[in-house]
Specification:
CATH superfamily: Endonuclease Chain A
Number of strands: 11
CATH architecture: 2-Layer Sandwich
Helix content: 25-40%
Strand content: 15-25%
Order of helices and strands: EHEEHEHEHHEEEHEHEE
CATH topology: Endonuclease, Chain A
Length: about 210
């Protein structure tokens, strides 16, 4: 994929900034879509919902509660990952029946990109996996050293979503040299691609891939 050189407004983020601004801020407010790409997929803890006893006690809960709320509201949540989810993540997902049916997971051993796209309008692109250590949920002394960018640039969003969508749709599976190692080649899966979506002043606007 060739992308013409151009200027874009981006902001460098590190440490707990991604956790605070993306995981705690933008993610729960998603209205249309959340697309996550990660090599590793592990449990990620977030503060309990405001107004609950758990929140009053200062307790943390699985980010899957956030994703469950999103899918209950009809948000398209997809996770593209390289390895099987960690046991704690799989166990937590298994306890959430509705989310397990609604959450779209696809595994590709060649996935090494780390992105989080929300509503087709906000992009995190960086080094952090979708894990507590990667996205800054842990204490400073245990958190990975990560760097990334946040942007609303439509060209970077389009290019990133197109790359994600190509992997998600299995368009690169046929010629993949790791196909024999793949637990379930994506091009053998049936569900069709959904439209890409960006939110603008006029509301949600779907844009199908060519």
């Amino acid at each position: 994929m060739t992308i013409a050189t151009r200027r874009a407004d981006v902001r460098l983020v590190t440490g707990a900034e991604v956790y605070d601004e993306v995981v705690l801020g933008a993610l729960p407010a998603a209205r249309v879509s959340v697309w996550i790409a990660t090599a590793n997929l592990k449990e990620l803890r977030v503060p309990a919902q405001v107004g609950t006893r758990a929140r009053a006690r200062g307790q943390y809960v699985s980010v899957l509660d956030t994703l469950a709320d999103l899918t209950d509201r009809g948000v398209d949540v997809r996770i593209l990952h390289a390895r099987a989810p960690s046991r704690p993540f799989a166990a937590a997902l298994g306890r959430r029946g509705r989310l397990k049916k609604a959450l779209a997971l696809r595994e590709c051993p060649r996935v090494h990109l780390k992105t989080l796209t929300i509503d087709g309008r906000l992009l995190y692109l960086g080094s952090a996996n979708f894990t507590g250590a990667g996205l800054g949920a842990r204490a400073d002394s245990r958190r990975n050293f990560e760097l990334g960018i946040l942007t609303e640039d439509e060209h970077l969003l389009d290019a990133t979503q197109a790359h994600f969508d190509a992997i998600w749709a299995g368009s690169q599976c046929a010629g993949c040299k790791l196909r024999a190692l793949c637990p379930k080649p994506i091009d053998t899966l049936a569900p069709p691609r959904a439209p890409k979506v960006r939110l603008d002043a006029a509301g949600p606007r779907a844009r199908r891939s060519a």
